[in-house]
Design goal:
- By secondary structure, the protein is an alpha/beta fold.
- It has two domains: 24-53 and 313-457, Aspartate Aminotransferase, domain 1 (Alpha-Beta Complex); 61-310, Aspartate Aminotransferase, domain 2 (3-Layer(aba) Sandwich).
- The chain is built from 17 helices and 16 strands.
- It has helices spanning 24-33, 61-68, 78-91, 102-113, 127-135, 163-173, 196-208, 220-230, 239-248, 277-287, 298-310, 314-333, 351-354, 364-376, 385-388, 416-431, 449-452, and strands at residues 48-49, 95-99, 119-122, 139-142, 180-183, 213-216, 252-256, 267-271, 346-350, 378-379, 381-383, 390-391, 397-398, 404-408, 439-443, 454-457.
- The strands form six sheets. Strands 2-8-7-6-5 form a five-stranded mixed beta sheet, with helices on both faces. The protein has a three-stranded antiparallel beta sheet with strand order 9-14-11.
- Strand 5 (180-183), helix 7 (196-208) and strand 6 form a beta-alpha-beta unit.
- Helix 1 packs across helix 14 (364-376), helix 6 runs parallel beside helix 7 and helix 8 (220-230) packs across helix 9.
């Protein structure tokens, strides 16, 4: 494949599902009824569902076959032990705690280890991680490098954590930090990878201050392939070997397996030693289920065990990254700015640059996401001030660092012709972008407001 200009989908399609295609006039009342919040649009009214890459994977024949031989025993099932072995071989961690998804893993970790006033540093915390930390009265601290906040920067590893700032933060607050983190890839910052060198350096800083190091590993395979492609010293190394070294540098990981686990549901916590295992499993039993199923059916564990192996296929990873690169190049040619360089799981449109006439307090990203739905039937996700904006103590509006619209691509679902069709429609949107208007928030929930908030167009 590397000798051809065209990178093909490295799979055959055996099952198909019809696409819904509505007109703009049909979509408009649906958007109004949903309060201009795309999370509230029914899937049957969406043509291209790029809301998230989480749990939207098309599973392989091998995964479906594995599900058919699952052992659904309540305790100690054969399927759990298969899943456990795969995670142990992948990560090198001996203690494996299944959960029904990444958010449950976050809740277990935060609920067991955090107390009010504590601080958790990372490159960038994503929305659910931040919410679980803040729910416990702790502080989620973002220390991504400066280039990670500049959509135009071509830095190859914009997900890197700022090592001097991390060192200074740990020196000042070591007693208040129960664990430190890095998210790979960095979803909040545009799906940008973290270099292996940066992970090594962060590991050394955490170790120097006696702080356990947890990796948010939901896109570990994509990050590992970026390392192979972009980090000079790592070229030629097998992706599986790179991934294993990444895990070896940390105390443990948590993972939403609905991303690089290639499944529709599932997650886990894996740890090097047993320090936290008893308290985590006790909370797991209370809220999720027995420690050998953790809120999952055994068939889900079987599918996940296969997915964690399939995701390291470098032909798949080559195709996966090519999808985002292809669409970014096509949209950039139309004058639609995207976060550079293109990430792995999603394309991020720079709504602040594309719609400079809409100020952050009127949510340019949300306005663009709504227009993409009306014009193309695309469901996307705002990652800007609707998601991360705040109010100061005096009530003033504090915008998010960037105003982005994320088009997250389900794995093994859409083909090149789908993206070509989408690009054709985007030409018309560009021609009338100056006519788009901002939004105001009509209902603001206290946590993860972007999931259920309601918006109204400005008059």
């Amino acid at each position: 494949m590397e000798k051809r200009r065209t990178i093909i989908e490295p799979f055959k399609i055996k099952v198909v599902e019809p696409l819904t295609v509505l007109s703009r006039d049909q979509r408009a009342p649906l958007l109004r009824a949903a309060g201009h919040n795309l999370f509230k649009i029914a899937a049957e009214h969406v043509t291209f569902d790029f809301l998230t890459d989480s749990g939207t994977t098309a599973m392989s024949a091998s995964q479906w076959a594995a599900m058919m031989v699952a052992d659904e025993s309540y305790a100690g099932s054969r399927s759990f032990h298969k899943f456990e072995r795969v995670v142990q071989q992948l990560t090198g961690y001996q203690h494996v705690i299944p959960t029904h998804q990444g958010r449950a893993a976050e809740r277990l970790l935060c609920g067991s280890l955090l107390k009010p006033g504590m601080k958790v540093p990372s490159n960038n915390h994503f929305d659910t991680t931040r919410a679980n930390i803040e729910f416990m009265g702790a502080e989620a601290v973002d220390l991504v490098i400066a280039e990670g906040l500049d959509p135009k920067s071509s830095h190859p590893f914009k997900g890197n954590i700022d090592i001097p700032r991390l060192r200074a933060f740990c020196s000042a607050h070591a007693k208040e930090i129960p664990f430190g983190m890095i998210t790979i890839t960095n979803n909040t910052g545009g799906g940008q990878p973290v270099s292996l060198r940066n992970i090594r350096e962060a590991s050394a800083v955490y170790r120097e201050h006696g702080i356990p190091f947890i990796i948010d590993a939901c896109r570990f395979a994509e990050n590992s392939y970026f390392i192979k492609l972009r980090e000079e010293t790592e070229r030629g190394r097998p992706v599986q070997e790179i991934a294993r070294e990444i895990f070896s540098l940390a105390s443990g990981c948590m993972m939403s397996a609905k991303k690089d686990g290639l499944v529709n549901i599932g997650g886990f916590i894996a740890l090097h030693d047993a320090q936290w295992v008893e308290s985590l499993r006790s909370l797991l039993i209370l809220t999720e289920g027995f420690p050998t199923y953790g809120g999952l059916a055994a068939r889900d564990l079987e599918a996940l065990a296969v997915g964690l192996e399939e995701v390291l296929d470098e032909r798949y990873l080559e195709y996966r990254l090519a999808v985002t690169r292809y669409l970014a190049e096509r949209l950039n040619a139309l004058g639609i700015p995207t976060v550079q360089p293109p990430g792995g799981h999603a394309l991020y449109i720079d709504a602040k640059a594309f719609l400079p006439h809409i100020p952050p307090q009127h949510f340019p990203g949300q306005a663009l996401a709504c227009e993409l739905y009306l014009a193309e039937g695309v469901r996307s996700c705002e990652i800007g001030s609707a998601m991360f904006g705040k109010r100061g103590a005096d009530g003033s509006f504090i915008p998010a660092p960037m105003e982005l619209v994320r088009l997250a691509f389900p794995r093994r679902v859409y083909t090149q012709s789908h993206f070509d069709y989408l690009v054709e429609g985007m030409e018309e949107l560009v021609s009338r972008k100056d006519s788009l208007v901002g939004l105001q928030m009509a209902h603001e929930p206290p946590f993860l407001r972007h999931f259920t908030a309601r918006f109204e167009p400005l008059p």
